[in-house]
Amino acid sequence: MNKAMQFLLRGLLMTTMLFAVSAVAQDAHNTPKANKGHVTHSTRDGKSVLTLSDDFVVPDTPDPHWQLVDSDGNVYLVDKLKTKAFIGEKYKKEIVVPSYVKNVSKVVIWCAFAEVNLGEASFSSPVK
Fold it and tell me: Residue 49 is part of a domain; what is its CATH number?
């Protein structure tokens, strides 16, 4: 088997394994600003990673952020969805959950400028 075929098979296997161990926040982002998509949780290199689905649409607001809520109700404003590095339709599709966040029960897309919840998705049980 040539190297290109081995590479493709390894990639397919890794993708399959990733989806097999991932948890998905099934609630759609169900507000007028962020009403499509879901969030997937996975572990990569021992770190907790959250990824927005491909059908997620970034809200047209001045300052959308990732915001995480843990099982105790603590809220963490984590990272911007868009920065100067992301031009046009590009955005920060995934984040590594900071070590100080003990678990994640809900992901909120938050407008820091207007201090408004633009959409949220909850996990059936907290992930970390």
Answer: 2.60.40
Domain that holds residue 117: 23-127
**DSSP code of residue 16:** H
- Characterize the bridge pairing of strands 116-127 and 47-52: unpaired
pLDDT of residue 106: 95
User: Which candidate, 56, 64, 20, places its Cα nearest to that of 38?
Assistant: 56
Classify residue 81 by its DSSP letter. Answer: S
CB 57 within 8 A of CB 36: yes
Question: What is the tens place of the pLDDT at every residue in 85-125?
Answer: 556 667 889 999 999 999 999 999 999 999 999 889 999 99
